[in-house]
Each structure stands twice: as structure tokens, then as C-alpha cells.
Specification:
The complex is a heterodimer of chains A (about 425) and B (about 475).
Chain A lengths: L1 E3 L5 E8 L13 H8 L11 H7 L4 E6 L4 E8 L3 H13 L7 H20 L6 H9 L14 H6 L2 H11 L5 E7 L3 H12 L22 E7 L5 E8 L5 H14 L5 H9 L3 E9 L5 E9 L5 H16 L15 H19 L3 H15 L8 H6 L3 H11 L5 E8 L5
Parallel strand pairs in A: 1-5, 6-10
Antiparallel strand pairs in A: 2-4, 2-5, 3-4, 7-9, 7-10, 8-9
Helix pairs in contact in A: 1-7, 3-8, 9-12, 9-15, 11-15
Chain B lengths: L28 E4 L5 E6 L5 E8 L13 H8 L9 H10 L3 E6 L4 E8 L3 H13 L5 H18 L3 H13 L13 H6 L2 H11 L6 E6 L3 H11 L6 H4 L24 E6 L6 E8 L8 H12 L5 H9 L3 E8 L7 E8 L4 H17 L4 H17 L4 H14 L5 H11 L2 H11 L6 E6 L1 H7 L6 E4 L1 H5 L1
Parallel strand pairs in B: 2-6, 7-11, 7-12
Antiparallel strand pairs in B: 1-2, 3-5, 3-6, 4-5, 8-10, 8-11, 9-10
Helix pairs in contact in B: 1-7, 3-8, 10-16, 11-12, 12-16
Classes of the chains: A alpha+beta (about 425), B alpha+beta (about 475).
């Protein structure tokens, strides 16, 4: 994908591989992410640590990230160095294995184990999402394990695993390359052809398919953690990213908790002071979506009481206006709430579109998932199409007790 | 697309760059209203967004000694109700327009920051003037925010990184207002009353001693007219009706915060059973306006300010002790900290600390190779444009100019100074401003393991988390 935007002499280079933690197997988790780290360890013509060195010494900003469905690699740099980025990306796409050593793998295994400790194990509530997804997704479903993987699986990864993963998933046929920024399209195409043209396409990758219907009945669990405030994690299965049902879920999340005047923040945090914070959001996942609602209880507030009040709001949203329970403001007046959610979402979209990184990433995303890059710059329209009726129908179908997964995190017993 | 290329490219060396194109400098300007309010502007057309900030000399450094948290609470209360509207009415109206308002104090300033669609310029300025001149400070909202802040302090005590930051400040700035968390401590929050907020507001929310900054898509003449209308020549009566002599909170007690400890000090904060250790190593840095500040930015970038910096490559890529390690000089009007931060494998805490101290010593004694300086210099010169992509990025630079009274052409001066810096100067800066042998080392993790391990660095003092957090 080529997106020209020459207002600054910068170019964003963004590469998506359609492989993520969902391509792993239980017992071998965390591999897609560990592999992402190995891609920064050099290739046939690029020394260890030289990927970052080459990019940073010309003023580039670079990183990568792994998600359930995909792994991305990206850099934004002064546009005159476009060929440098293409050389680096093509060298690791085509010639990673000659640079691979057991020593590098061991080093990055230690780095990733520290990443897991820092982000998950040594964080308050750090393991909650992992536990929640075990509730939300059945045994062997590919979203059931965390992207970063289980510690013992990270420890077990071998060099052969790295080689096999590379051969299976990192060919051009499983990748999308996007440039956004200041370049001359014909020259950029010629450069792309020069660096990537000779790479063998690789065998097509069979996409993992793992759609799920709503839960059949409510599931819940509780866990204790080194925390002082209880926290609730609600999760509901939704339609997958990009579907109209997913957009409705996204608007509903913003409608409920985006901004101080949003009904849940106003009621739970400001008015009744049951919660320290509350926020709802959706996961942009490809197989099945997830609507999440997380609320931290105020000290001394019973988690069940907070959960009940949240359910009253969700019920109020689901009920037809005429018969709505007077106990929630969401029984009526949804038009105004929707207007707020839309406007703020629109402002957020404008704001995000300012950066070349984000534009490039959107183009890669819509191309990878739907082969529809044109949808990248029409997210605002997708939001605009969601109306009150759709929100009520979504709440009735998806946010009810039958589809509810709830994890309650409670403080550990009083510490000495 | 065309067929495969006729010849394979030479991959053995990085390709040569194309022709350099100039980065347009941001178009910063300033003017003053008839009442003497400084207005800083950074126009950026193309995206219909605006960012407006009222910057007031009412930051945490103005906290009275007995009231840590007063500045932060006053700022948080600003949008909780005005003489005209309740807090919920204010936020509902703003948010229905798609706007976002943040009222908070950092150490340097109180900031009423508004992001909104460009068409709402006049509405936004009206709103900010209402908040500035007519806050109601409702008692029930104060009670609520007090409880919320107390709960937030509890929650921070659960977060090892936050505990480490607070313990570091607690010991580095002992005896000054900067030793406390910005949000205050439980005793001060319990005691805080509405009159203190009113007095603090009266004394320090003076726009003529602060600034208005506006970045984004606006018409200059329309902006000037609108600003003149909301911040008129004579101040609203209630602001002038009280004497300034009753003002609580003098200038910051920075003079006492200047002396580094004479020897290396090691503090362990116990977190039993922790999976990792949060490490902080550092000492006092320089005020933002220090003439060495730009050079120190280059020094820091080379040392710990980018992925390929010495400290990150050492701790992460060479030793695998951590997911990442970085250093920074924190900017304040007074001396902010210089601090190296990392979360490391507990068993390697002492080794990681030794490596950091070793890097600080090495850069003071060994000449920096010109190629290493060039790589850092070119990084900083290159990433400069990256920060200009967004209204937020422009606004951050403009806010800094307004806050510290820097020249409007600070960006161009910065680039010129970075381009001209010599390797020998880097060593001078390191010798002058890095003090590894007088550093404060804070480790938050299992004391059982850390107390013995850290003996090799210095005699560790053991602190309980509750002390560190207060």
C-alpha cells in the first residue's frame, strides 16, 4: 500500500505478518512474540543490534508488536532513508536464518521473561486478563492463552522452533507492506521491487478459523492478588472486528464510559462513589470480538454491589425505552449519550490520523484482514452508522447475563 | 506489478540515502492581551483540532510545607463546578461537543488543558475563563475528590514502579516539598479544607503571571479577538478584592534541595515475593534553563535515552537482566532528578546496579568516540520532525517555551546546538553533571534477597513500603 502525504520529509514503513499468538498451540505459547524479538537480532547482512542502530543513527523511530492475530514491524524515518528501511525489512524477511544463534535466542528469552515479569507478574491485577480470557474462551480456543505466553512455554522454546516458525509464517505471501508519507510513488515502487522482488513468496498460510457464538450461560471466577482495591472484569463475546456488530460494540463502550459525563463514570465514580474508575472497550480481534468492562471498587465497597449496579445499567440499555427500569439513566435519553460518544470518537479519530505511523498501520490492518485498504480512512463513517436501535439490540443480544464472564479480583488477606 | 528484477541487489551494505530535504520549523509566535496576558500560538492547518492551555504558576512547587497535594487538589477542583454551572453540567456540555478537558498540576504549573474541534474556539476560551475566574470549589466535590485521591494513593502502593519513583523522590528531596507525592499524603489530604483551596487559587491562579498557549487550526485575528473578550483589560472584581499578602505557599524551597548527598546511598523498599526488582539510580540534575541542558540531553540520549543507548544495550541486550533500561534528566524550573530506571531480575539486582554505575563512571573518564556522538546527534536531529506531526507535539513544545520563558526560536537553536556539539564537550558535561559515587540507589523488591546482595554497592537501608509511599 502506498499512501503519499508529503507535508513533512518523513516516511512510515509498516509491515504486517498475518500471524499471532492464535497460530500457537497450548504448551507452546508465547512463541509469536518471542519470535518478534528475534527479528530485531540481525539477519544475513545485518549484525546483532544493528537493526535499531541503523535506524536510530539516521533519526528513525522503530518497533514491533505482537497480537492475537498478527505481528507488525514498523519504522518512521526521514524520507531520504526509505531504502534503508526497505533493505532492513527485506533482509529479515528473506535472510533471517543465517544470523540466528542459540546465544541470541537465550538472551531474548531472558529479555522476554523479564518483559512478562514487568508487565504481568509483578503488576497489580497483572494476571487478571489471563484469567478472564480463560473464562471467556473454551479449552483450546486460540484466544485462551496470553499473547506473551506462559512462562514455562517461553523457557521451552528452541532454535528449531524459531526456524520452523520463520519458514511457515514469514514469507511475502503472508505479509502486507505499507508506506505512508513523503515519497515519489514510482521510485518507491521500484525500490520495493528491488529489495523484495526476489524473495520467494512462500507457501500460503492457512488461516486459523475460530469463530464463537455468545456464551451459553454466565461464567465467573475470583482470584486474590497483591492489591488493596477489589476490581471487576466483565467480558462479553461480540462479533469480530470490522463487522457492523463490532462497531456497535465499540460505540456502546464509548457511550457507557468515555468521559466524565458518561453514564457509568457519572453514576459509579462521581454520583454514588462506588467505583474508583470504570472503563469499557472492545478488542479488535479477527475471530471473535470481546467487549470488556473493568471497574475498580472504592475502598470498603462490596464488589457484588458494584457488579449489581453495573448490571442495572446494562439492563437499562437493553430494555426498550418505554419499558426501561427507572433505576438507570440509560432507560431513556440515549440520543444525547450517543451524540457525545460519536463526537468524542470523531475527535479521537482525527487526532490519531495525524501521524504517519497510525495511517500506515491502519492501511496494513484493513488490507491484512479484509483486503480492503480503502476502509482504513472511513472508520468515522462506520461509527456514524451505529444508531440507538442498534445499540439497544446489541445490549439485549450480547450484554445480558447469559453472555457474561465475570472475574472478581480481591485483595489478599491482610498483610503483616 | 512488474516481473522480478533482472539482477539481485547488493545487500551487503546499507543503501545510500537520497537528497536531504529541509524540515519546516514550527511557526511559533506570541502576543499579549491588553491586560498583559502572554499568549503563545502555534498554527497548524489541515486537521480541525485545537489544543488550548492555560498555564498558571500554581504547580506543586507552590505547595506550603504542611500541605503537599494542595496544588494538585486545587487544579483538580477547578472544573468541579463554577458560579454558573455544576461540575456535571460543565463536563456534559463540553463532552457533547467532543471536547476533552484536563485540569491538573505538575511540579511546575497548574494546567487547564482543552482539546476540542477547531470550530469551538470561542466556546473553549469562554469555558476556560469561567473555570479560571469563577470556580465554586463545592464542598461535596472536594470531599469526593479527597476520598478518590486517598484511594489512588493506596493503589499506587500496589505498583512497584510507582513505589520506586516515590521512594527515590522521598530520599533525594528529603526536607523539601518535592519529597512528597504531587497528589499529597493521607495526613495532608485529610486536613485539607476548602478555604485553603480558595486562598491558593486567589494567590496563584493569575494568568498575567502564566500564559495561554494555542496550537492547531485557528485564525489568528479571530483568536486575538476572542482572547481579548474573555480575558478583558480589567480583571474580574473578586480577583482584586483580596490582598495577595495572605497567599499561602511561597516560592519553592529549592535552595535546600540543591546539595547532593556526599556518598553513595542504597535504599531497599521491601516487596516480599516480588517477581522482579524495580531499580532507580540517580541524583539531582539541573534546572531546565541551565545553559548545559541541551548538551545534557545529547549526553543522556547516548547514555540511556534511546534503544541503542549504552545502558539499554548493556542491561538488556548484553546481559538479559531486563526488558529495558533508560535514563533521563527530568525538567523542572528547579533542579529535577537525573534518574536511571529499570525493572531487573531480582537475582541480578546488584550486578545490574554495578553495570549502571559503571556506565556512569565510564562516560566521565573515557573519551566518547566521534562516531558514537554522531549516531546520537543524527538520531536527535532526525526524530525532531517526528514530533511535529501532531497538534499535541507542537503544543508540547510551545508549552515548554511558555513555561520556562525560552525564546520562540528554541527549536532552531536546539538543532544548531545539537549539530555543533563536540565529543570533548560531552565528557566535560559528564564530569560536571554525573555523580555516580554520590548516587542514590533505590531497589523495590524482596528485601530478604536484596539486603545481602546489595552490600557490594553500599550498606543498604531498609524501608517499609508505607514509609516510602508517604
Amino acid at each position: 500500500m502506498l499512501h503519499r502525504e508529503p507535508s513533512l520529509p518523513l516516511v512510515a514503513v509498516n509491515l504486517w505478518y498475518h500471524v499471532g499468538s492464535k497460530n500457537e498451540k497450548p504448551g507452546r505459547t508465547g512463541f509469536a512474540h518471542l519470535f518478534e524479538h528475534m527479528l530485531f537480532q540481525g539477519s544475513a547482512n545485518v549484525g546483532t543490534n544493528d537493526h535499531f542502530r541503523y535506524l536510530q543513527e539516521v533519526g528513525g523511530v522503530a518497533n514491533g508488536s505482537t497480537w492475537y492475530d498478527r505481528t507488525n514491524y514498523y519504522e518512521t524515518l526521514p524520507s531520504r532513508h526509505l531504502d534503508l528501511a526497505l533493505w532492513l525489512e527485506s533482509d529479515r524477511m528473506g535472510f533471517l536464518l543465517p544470523g540466528l544463534t542459540a546465544e541470541k535466542l537465550e538472551n531474548q528469552r531472558q529479555v522476554v521473561m523479564n518483559e512478562r515479569r514487568q508487565r504481568v507478574d509483578n503488576q497489580p491485577y497483572g494476571r487478571a486478563m489471563e484469567r478472564l480470557f480463560e473464562l471467556l474462551f473454551p479449552e483450546d480456543h486460540p484466544y485462551r492463552w496470553p499473547v506473551i505466553g506462559w512462562m514455562e512455554d517461553i523457557e521451552a522454546a528452541t532454535l528449531d522452533d524459531v526456524r520452523a516458525f520463520f519458514s511457515t509464517y514469514y514469507g511475502p505471501s503472508n505479509a502486507v507492506l505499507t508506506l505512508a508519507g513523503d515519497f515519489e510513488p514510482a521510485a518507491a515502487l521500484a525500490s520495493i521491487e528491488r529489495w523484495f522482488g526476489g524473495l520467494p513468496a512462500g507457501a500460503p498460510v492457512q488461516r486459523v478459523r475460530a469463530p464463537l457464538p455468545p456464551l451459553a450461560h454466565a461464567v465467573r471466577a475470583s482470584m486474590s492478588d497483591r492489591v488493596q482495591l477489589s476490581r471487576l472484569y466483565f467480558a462479553f463475546r461480540t462479533e469480530p472486528f470490522g463487522s457492523s456488530g463490532w462497531w456497535t460494540a465499540a460505540v456502546t463502550a464509548n457511550l457507557l464510559t468515555d468521559g466524565k459525563s458518561s453514564p457509568l463514570v457519572h453514576d459509579l465514580v462521581v454520583d454514588r462513589q462506588l467505583a474508583q474508575d470504570v472503563s469499557a472497550y472492545v478488542y479488535p480481534t479477527e475471530e471473535v470480538g470481546a467487549f470488556l468492562l473493568v471497574a475498580t471498587a472504592r475502598p470498603g465497597v462490596d464488589a457484588e454491589r458494584l457488579a449489581d449496579r453495573i448490571r442495572e445499567h446494562l439492563d437499562g440499555l437493553a430494555a426498550p425505552a418505554a419499558t426501561a427500569s427507572p433505576r438507570s439513566a440509560l432507560g431513556s435519553g440515549l440520543d444525547g449519550e450517543l451524540e457525545r460518544a460519536r463526537r468524542r470518537t470523531l475527535a479521537g479519530i482525527y487526532s490519531e490520523l495525524q501521524t504517519l505511523d497510525h495511517r500506515a498501520d491502519l492501511l496494513s490492518q484493513y488490507t491484512t484482514f479484509f483486503d480492503a485498504p480503502e476502509r482504513a480512512f472511513h472508520e468515522a463513517e462506520a461509527y456514524e452508522q451505529v444508531d440507538v436501535a442498534a445499540i439497544r439490540a446489541f445490549a439485549a443480544a450480547r450484554l445480558g447475563p447469559a453472555n457474561e464472564a465475570l472475574l472478581v479480583v480481591e485483595p489478599e488477606g491482610v498483610r503483616s | 506489478m512488474s516481473a522480478a528484477p533482472s539482477s539481485l541487489p547488493d545487500r551487503s551494505l546499507p543503501p545510500a540515502p537520497g537528497r536531504e530535504s529541509a524540515v519546516p520549523m514550527p511557526d511559533f509566535d506570541r502576543f499579549a492581551t491588553s491586560r498583559g496576558v502572554p499568549v503563545f500560538v502555534a498554527p497548524r492547518a489541515g486537521v480541525p483540532l485545537l489544543e488550548i492551555e492555560l498555564q498558571l504558576d500554581a504547580g506543586g512547587e507552590r505547595n506550603p510545607a504542611q500541605r503537599p497535594g494542595l496544588a494538585a487538589m486545587t487544579a483538580s477542583m477547578i472544573d468541579e463546578g463554577s458560579a454558573r454551572r455544576t461540575g456535571p453540567q460543565l463536563s456534559a456540555e463540553l463532552e457533547r461537543r467532543g471536547g476533552t478537558l484536563s485540569c491538573h498540576a505538575d511540579w511546575n504549573a497548574a494546567r487547564l488543558r482543552l482539546q476540542l474541534l477547531a470550530s469551538d474556539l470561542e466556546y473553549g476560551l469562554d469555558l476556560l475563563a469561567e473555570l479560571l475566574y469563577e470556580p465554586a470549589f463545592p464542598q461535596h466535590e472536594l470531599d469526593r475528590l479527597r476520598q478518590q485521591t486517598l484511594a489512588e494513593l493506596k493503589r499506587r502502593a500496589d505498583q512497584p514502579a510507582a513505589v520506586a519513583d516515590e521512594a527515590f523522590a522521598h530520599h533525594l528531596y528529603a526536607g523539601t516539598i518535592f519529597a512528597h507525592p504531587l497528589a499529597g499524603n493521607p495526613a495532608a489530604l485529610d486536613a485539607l479544607n476548602r478555604d485553603e483551596l480558595l486562598d491558593f487559587h486567589h494567590a496563584h491562579y493569575r494568568l498575567e503571571r502564566g500564559a495561554v498557549t494555542v496550537a492547531g487550526d485557528f485564525d489568528r485575528a479571530r483568536l486575538a479577538t476572542a482572547i481579548e473578550a474573555v480575558f478583558p483589560a480589567s480583571a474580574p472584581a473578586h480577583l482584586d478584592s483580596r490582598s495577595e499578602a495572605s497567599a499561602p505557599g511561597g516560592p519553592a524551597e529549592t535552595s535546600t534541595a540543591g546539595a547532593p548527598s556526599r556518598k553513595l546511598r542504597v535504599v531497599v523498599v521491601d516487596r516480599p515475593g516480588a517477581e522482579q526488582t524495580e531499580l532507580r539510580i540517580g541524583h539531582l540534575g539541573v534546572p531546565r534553563r541551565h545553559p548545559d541542558r541541551v548538551g545534557l540531553g545529547v549526553l543522556n540520549t547516548l547514555l540511556g535515552g534511546k534503544f541503542t543507548s549504552r545502558i539499554n544495550l548493556n542491561l538488556r541486550e548484553r546481559h538479559g537482566f531486563t526488558y529495558g533500561a533508560s535514563s533521563r534528566f527530568v525538567d523542572r524550573k528547579s533542579r529535577g532528578p537525573f534518574v536511571v530506571s529499570s525493572a531487573v531480575t531480582t537475582a541480578a539486582t546488584a550486578r545490574a546496579a554495578q553495570e549502571v554505575l559503571g556506565e556512569l563512571r565510564r562516560i566521565r573518564t573515557e573519551p566518547v568516540a566521534p562516531a558514537e556522538l554522531d549516531a546520537t546527534r543524527n538520531y536527535l536531529l532526525g526524530v525532531f520532525a517526528y514530533g511535529l506531526q501532531t497538534v499535541e507535539g507542537l503544543s508540547a513544545r510551545l508549552d515548554e517555551i511558555a513555561l520556562y520563558g525560552l525564546p520562540l526560536d528554541t527549536p532552531a537553536r536546539y538543532l544548531a546546538e545539537v549539530a555543533a556539539l563536540q565529543p570533548a564537550e560531552l565528557n566535560r558535561l559528564a564530569e560536571t553533571h554525573l555523580c555516580p559515587d554520590e548516587a542514590l540507589v533505590v531497589a523495590v523488591g524482596p528485601a530478604e534477597e536484596l539486603m545481602g546482595q546489595l552490600q557490594e554497592i553500599g550498606e543498604p537501608e531498609l524501608w517499609s513500603p508505607s514509609c516510602a509511599a508517604i
